[in-house]
C-alpha cells in the first residue's frame, strides 16, 4: 500500500481546488484534489508542498492541518492502486494554478483546474473523487471534523 498525501486547498471563500483529468485508457473524466505519493524520507508536509508546487505552481504552502485519512483502491489507466491517504487542510489565498513540474504522464491526463464550493460538489453530475468530498467539505467548513 502506497502512502499518499491529499490536500484540501481552501481559499478565503471556502472553495477547494480540484484537478480535472481524463483517464487515458477509459477516457472517463473526473475531478480530484491536489496530492500524490509521499517519497521515502519525506514528511507529509514536505510531500504536500512538493506536490502542490508540481501540480499548481504554488510556492510557500502554509502548514496543513490533518483532517481525514482513508485506505483506498482506485483504478486509472487500466491499473489498480492501493493507497493510504492522509488528508491535510491548507488555507491559501485564491490563485490561478500554473503547473510547474508535471510528469509526462500528468501532462497527458490533466485537463485543467477549478475552485469548487461544497454545495457545487454536492449537486454536480461530474465525477468527483472521493465521491463524498462535497459532504466532507461542507462539514469541514462548518467546523465539524469526521
TrEMBL record:
- What is the protein's given name? NUDIX domain-containing protein
A single Pfam family it belongs to is NUDIX
Q: Where in this chain does the entry annotate a coiled-coil region?
A: none
CDD domains noted in UniProt: NUDIX_Hydrolase (cd04685)
Keywords (A to Z) from UniProt: Hydrolase, Magnesium
Do you know which InterPro entries this protein is assigned to?
A: NUDIX_hydrolase-like_dom_sf (IPR015797), NUDIX_hydrolase_CS (IPR020084), NUDIX_hydrolase_dom (IPR000086)
Report a single Gene Ontology molecular function. hydrolase activity
**Which source organism does the UniProt entry give?**
Kribbella rubisoli
Cofactor(s), names only, from the UniProt record: Mg(2+)
Signal peptide: which range, if any? none
